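pasting for the record
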Amino acid sequence: MNLNKVDILAFGAHPDDIELGCAGMLIKHIKKGYSVGLCDLTKGELGSRGSGELRLVEAENARIRMGADWRINLHMKDGFFEHSYENLLAVAKIIRLVRPKVILCNAPVDRHPDHGRGSKLVLDACFYSGLKKIEIIDDSGQSLTPYRPKSVFHYIQDKELIPDFVVDITAEMDQKILCIQQFSSQFYLGEDSTENQTPISGKQFFDFVKSKNAVYGRDIQVDFAEGFITSRIIGVEDVTTLI
């Protein structure tokens, strides 16, 4: 597993979670010069439309649109992955390999049960990744040095959750939508489509995405923003820089 170190590592339970929840924030930081890696826990193979293999292709196309350094899939079982020793170590291995400053992951509670479960899995793996008595071996047989990221933030996706902070993504909103649209198997395909209809496949879904980001933007008087929940109290160095 040859992955370069990154400043920000984003996890999603399924391909497209990252794009829906925090693509704008990631694009914004990529434009600032930060490196970004993406990690999906599952292929989303239980989705009503498309297939797991197709989702892998779509995920890579979305990564390219975003400008992230790389994307990896851990091939956990969609809908049924567990908070297990093996899965905790699989996530912790990625964290030790790429040593990000910041980790993003699903919201603690959401419509899809995988999102909350994935959130807990990643958050706990961040803790275990820092324990020196837990040995994790890389693909070359070398023991990986313990590491714990500085911050873990949960992006808000479907449920109406109250964010701890928001990030202005007005300049990134159009590119965020383009990233989401790469998952064409999951979203609106036209009136003549014979695919199964789902809560995210309707013509109005992209209006919902924009509206949600507009609501978060209104609180800081910008057009669009993404909301995030913190896993711990965060410190502020200069209160005059807050918007």
